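Bug: token stream looks shifted between consecutive jobs. Job 1:
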Amino acid sequence: MEDVQRKLTIKDEYCRMNRWNFLTLLSLVSCIVSIVLFITAKQAPTYAKSCRDLTNDESGIYLIRPDPFLPPIEVYCDMSSVDGGWTLVAAVHENDILSRCGHGDLWSSQQGEMASKQKGDGNWLNERIFGKIDDITHGDYKNIAYFNMPASNVMIWHVPNNLRFHNIKDEAFFMYYTIDNVLDKYGKTLKNLFSQHAPLKDPGYNRFHTMLASPIKFIKGNMTEMMENIPSAVLADVQPGYLQFRAFDNDGGSYALCPGFKIYQGNVPQVCIGGANSLHMDRCGDFAGWYGKWLENGNKTTPVDGLARQLRDVKSSILIFTK
């Protein structure tokens, strides 16, 4: 009996010892892991939430992290215009204006010439991303800052297509920005503005709406030059010096953005971009109804009908920044 009791005592002491050793080991491992995580956190790079938070004053491509739960992204930052800090969030490019909502028309529709599918892809209102930062004058582009980076104002550049990246700003023929803190009033991001305050409706929607048009200030170009780009048949319908968010054609079809103008009625497709919800396929596309006929003479182009935009406009990209 004594022998059994002695063995039980030895076993109990052995278990207590090993339990203590196990807990000690577990505690030691936990401590080491905590130290490693602490050191890693200290050494991990920190990223600005937007270009506005950068301390560098040189324009170019930077890594920012608008969303702390997502990896950082590469964006183009304009650090010199109007105190700098502008983040490029989107680019609208018409790769084939005759395709009518064909391949690459991501800001209108890629669904083709089918009236039953003429609803648009909805990219002005959603959180889809597409394109590459180094291809912004070759194709459509949208990054996560479009929908999750709070901002106050919008800046627009009109630039020729197919430029090398370092030439974009120098080659821009119009540059301007809103001066009324429009995003502060309408959702802080362009996604919220369009989804909550200026939704793109189906054809037939009541187009007599409250106009959402922000006054702009020119960095490059002016109102006179802007009016010279507008087709003659449209001149009476527009007022330069604004950036209008959403406009409706005479059939109630909606267009997302009217860069440089506000338009009261009439030929909306010749002024605005991002048209997919029209009853007419010839108005469907990133640059909607900008197509017309031109006489080309060297670098000069002359529209030969009253509804054509300048060839320079058709072969350009619209870059969208926010700050």
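Job 2, same session, no restart:
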Amino acid sequence: MPMAHLLGKHAPPGACMQSCQSSSRLAGCRRPFRQVAGAAAAPPTTSVSHMSANMKQKMRSSMEENEQLKVLMAGFRGSNLDASDFASAGVRMQLVTDLQDQDLGAALPLTYDPDAINRYWNTRPTAVITRITQLLTIAGTFIGGLVSDLIAGCLKENEVKRAIELRDIVTSLGPAYIKLGQALSIRPDILSPAAMNELQKLCDKVPSFDNTVAMQVINDELGAPWYEIYADLTPEPIAAASLGQVYKGRMKTGEEVAVKVQRPGVLETVTVDLYIIRKLGLMLKRFPQVTTDVVALLDEWAARFFDELDYVKEGQNATLFAQQMAEDLPQVVVPKTYSQLTSRRVLTVSWLEGEKLSQSKADDVGDLVNIGVICYLKQLLDTGFFHADPHPGNLIRTPDGRLAVLDFGLVTEVRRSWAQCL
């Protein structure tokens, strides 16, 4: 690198010579500057590319030897997932609609308000007790199994079995616990590799709900039966997630669409679980040994979670993201939102064909990974509008070789001051 670049673009004439001569004298070297410069120009014995290749090889070897790191990276790539899009047969999500109280959702807030949630559930102690009983019943068998393994000294032998049970239990507990499980699935400091491996499947392997109920949600939200709105809709969902499930459809004008329908009882289930967890957090504040502010942590997480429950906002997020990427990154594609067919609990977007980037065998996958890196750097350092849910199911390779980014329920804004620090 020229010395002027090190001294500054507007270095005074002779500054480079003076600096180098000064450095030579400090080093005890009296040779003329040209000789020093000539010596410095000698070709290196090891190229940068060779050093980089060696570093990559060492990193790969280290990863292969570290079981926790292998599982973590497999989760990021999605290579530990199979082709199925649903949970194991027999796993059922326990929602608050099962409590048989038809008035549960009458006055719940649509944005996160812990005081309003507290007032609502304080007047419904029977429903709260029933939910606590559900949670304890579902988790009780698992805890009993762990205690049994501990007494028998076979924790290691039953690790995989208990990890599968843990995933099914978290799924059964409902959306709030599924989201918590997803967060824990990348925490090797808390969970074993087997548990991480199973919880990583929570990203896109949860039970679907009854199609008749889903069609009724479309009717209630959009004001007409599905067949009056869409020309066609698959009789069964093609995928299910913690908050809803997706159908493939076709508009009456011919365009193929994806229709996401929210689970009934999600708002009620999420709020009663937050109410219970928050009560526990307030109790923990009495113990000085607990240094983490559980309540503040829960409130921050819950505010983001509530945003995911509003499909109108999700559609607006996708539209804004697409606009921000259009000029600089035409290789990134986002489904178009049909706002006239979108409500708080139903989202209609254009259908995108493709395969998960993590599972694609195409030759251009490496290029698309690089595009993805640039895309996320642009979000962090330029637009400040960040897609915060980049798990393998949300990054798709389209047949024409573009990178599709899906699911904009969870986004965040990066302050300009943070971007400057980065």
